[in-house]
Write a structure and sequence with these properties.
71 residues; mainly alpha; two-stranded antiparallel sheet; 2 helices
Length: 71
């Protein structure tokens, strides 16, 4: 189980029991831009994750639920 300061213990495969995680939700109005900024940082370090971040951004864009500023 990983640990989120907001959500507590969360079960995520391949993440250690006490490893902290930060969770972005599609309802968060700032999440899509945050992933975009992370993509820019990853690209500047030539990270292989850059391509998969486009898929994450698209998934957040397709989500039809309500959006709000994080609380």
């Amino acid at each position: 189980m990983a640990i989120s300061t907001k959500y507590g213990k969360v079960e995520i495969p391949k993440i250690g029991d006490s490893e902290p995680v930060f969770i972005l939700r599609a309802q968060d109005k700032l999440a899509e831009a945050t992933i975009g900024m992370y993509k820019l940082l990853a690209a500047s370090h030539r990270s292989k994750i850059v391509g998969s971040l486009d898929k994450e951004i698209e998934a957040f864009q397709r989500w039809q639920g309500p959006r709000k500023i994080p609380d």
